[in-house]
Design goal:
The protein is flat. With 195 residues, the protein is α+β, with helices and mostly antiparallel strands. The protein folds into 2 domains: 107 residues, Probable tRNA modification gtpase trme, domain 1 (Gyrase A, domain 2, 2-Layer Sandwich), CATH 3.30.1360; 61 residues, Alpha-Beta Plaits, CATH 3.30.70. The strands form 2 sheets. A 7-stranded mixed beta sheet has the order 1-11-2-7-10-9-8. It has a 4-stranded antiparallel beta sheet with strand order 4-5-3-6. It has 4 helices and 11 strands; from the N terminus they run E-E-E-H-E-E-H-E-E-H-E-E-E-H-E.
């Protein structure tokens, strides 16, 4: 029986990269809201798109992981656990870089599609946050770069102080819209700006 000719291999489909869409794209409308007396006390900004990677040190590797992450300015997320975030990186680039650098000493997971970071800043930012968290945000207790895991409005929040009166709040994507509605409602009495 004659051998049938080999079938040509199909060309691989080109990889199509769809842009990440913020789950807050339809609700985080830019403008000024709430009390209209004077300058707004709070400003909100959705930090999007962001590269967000969770790093968990393997047993006995905590010091090695902490040292390797120093150039990336990691945020504490628990014992021997960190969030590393970056703006302006290509899709998956931060994850691949950290996975390679921490091979054998840490588990690395890309959270870029699963989390949303909201920045709250302004002279009344602490007052708004105090309505939802027991974390002491006084500058003597919450130094620049310090992080805490807390809950606000029944939503788990990773809170990091990033400026004099500025904090990044990282929440799971599925809770982002309800959290946004809650936190902006808490800011209404002070007036707030969404940028």
């Amino acid at each position: 029986m004659p051998k049938s000719p080999a079938r040509p291999k199909a060309a691989a489909a080109p990889e199509i990269m769809l842009p990440r869409v913020s789950p807050l794209a339809d609700v985080a409308i830019q403008g000024r809201f709430g009390a209209d007396r004077g300058a707004p006390g709070v400003e909100f900004r959705v930090r999007h798109p962001m590269s967000i990677v969770t790093v968990i040190a393997r047993q006995g590797q905590g010091s090695a992981v902490a040292a390797a992450l120093v150039p990336h300015a990691p945020q504490w997320a628990g014992p021997d656990q960190y969030f590393v975030i970056a703006e302006g990186r290509g899709e998956g680039a931060l994850y691949r870089e950290l996975k390679s650098a921490l091979d054998g000493i840490a588990s690395v997971s890309d959270q870029s599609h699963g989390r949303v970071i909201i920045r709250i800043s302004g002279v009344k930012a602490r007052a708004v946050l105090a309505k939802g968290t027991p974390v002491d945000l006084h500058p003597d207790e919450c130094a620049m770069g310090k992080s805490a895991l807390t809950q606000m409005a029944h939503v788990g929040v990773h809170l990091t102080r990033v400026g004099e009166n500025a904090f990044d709040l990282s929440v799971f994507r599925g809770f982002a819209e309800s959290f946004w509605e809650w936190i902006t409602e808490q800011a209404e009495e002070f007036g707030y700006m969404v940028r």
